Amino acid sequence: MDASQASIDAAARTGAHLLLVHHGLFWGGGTPVVGRQWRRLKSLLDADVAVYSSHIPLDCHPDVGNNAVLARALGIMDSVPTGDFKGVAIGLLGAFDGTLSEFTSKVTEVTGTQPKVIAGGPEKVSRVCVVTGGAGSMIDEVRRAGADTFLTGEGNHHSYFDATEGGLNVVYAGHYATETFGVKALATHLQREFDVTWDFFDHPTGL
C-alpha cells in the first residue's frame, strides 16, 4: 500500500517491473532528494522498478476504489458518492440492515482487524458512510449527510466527542487495513486486461 523502503526492497527482490501503491513518494510538492527519500529512489533506479501511485483517485474510484470494494465486501447496498475533498466526493453512503454489533463483526471479518468502536449513534444500523484512511475529521459532514454509522481508518482524540455528542456511530478499523483493497482490485484489473502477474506485499503498520 505504501511506497516505503520495505515495499521497494520487496519489489526489487521479486524482480517486479512496476510497484503499484496507494501512498506514493512525494507529498505536498517538491521535496529535497536526500536521506531516506534518496535511498528509496536509488533503490528503485538500481532495480529498474517503476512506481505508479494513485491516492485520492483510488480511494473514490467506483469499481476498484478502496471505498467501493470495501463497501461491497461489507454488504452495503445502493451506495452513492458523498463527502467533499477539494471538490471530489471522497466517500460512499449506503444502506446496511443490521445492528452495530453485527456491522462491527463484519468489519472485523473483512479487514482482519479488531476495530475501535465509538457507539455514539443507534444500535440499529441503516445508513453507513465509508471513507477509508484517516477521515476522522469528517464526522460532522458524515452526520449531516444522513449516516448513522461511519466507517473509516483513524481519527483524532476529540473525534470521540464529535461522535458521541453528534449521535453518530464511528468505527475505526485502521488506516492500513481499510486501504489495502484498492491496490489489490486494481492489480486484478490489470491482470485481466494485460495478462500480467502480481503479488501483494503485506506490510501492516498497525495504525
Structural features, described:
It is a single chain. The chain is α/β, with parallel strands linked by helices. It contains nine helices and eight strands. It has helices spanning 5-14, 35-47, 56-60, 66-74, 100-111, 139-144, 159-166, 175-178, 181-194, and strands at 18-21, 50-53, 77-85, 88-99, 116-119, 124-130, 149-152, 169-172. The strands form two sheets. It has a six-stranded mixed sheet with strand order 3-4-6-7-8-5, sandwiched between helices. A hairpin with a 2-residue loop joins strand 3 (77-85) and strand 4. The longest helix has 14 residues, at 181-194. The protein is globular, with a radius of gyration of 18 Å. The chain starts with a helix and ends in a 13-residue tail after the last helix. The mean pLDDT is 96.
Reconstruct the topology from this structure:
Layout: H1 5-14, E1 18-21, H2 35-47, E2 50-53, H3 56-60, H4 66-74, E3 77-85, E4 88-99, H5 100-111, E5 116-119, E6 124-130, H6 139-144, E7 149-152, H7 159-166, E8 169-172, H8 175-178, H9 181-194
Parallel strand pairs: 1-2, 6-7, 7-8
Antiparallel strand pairs: 3-4, 4-6, 5-8
Helix pairs in contact: 1-2, 4-9
Give descriptors for this structure:
single chain; 207 residues; six-stranded mixed sheet
Quick structural summary:
With 207 residues, the chain is of the alpha/beta class.
How are the strands of the largest sheet arranged?
3-4-6-7-8-5
Count, helices: 9
Q: What is the arithmetic mean of pLDDT? A: 96
Low-confidence stretches: none
- State the helicity in percent bands: 25-40%
> What structural category characterises the helix and strand content?
alpha/beta
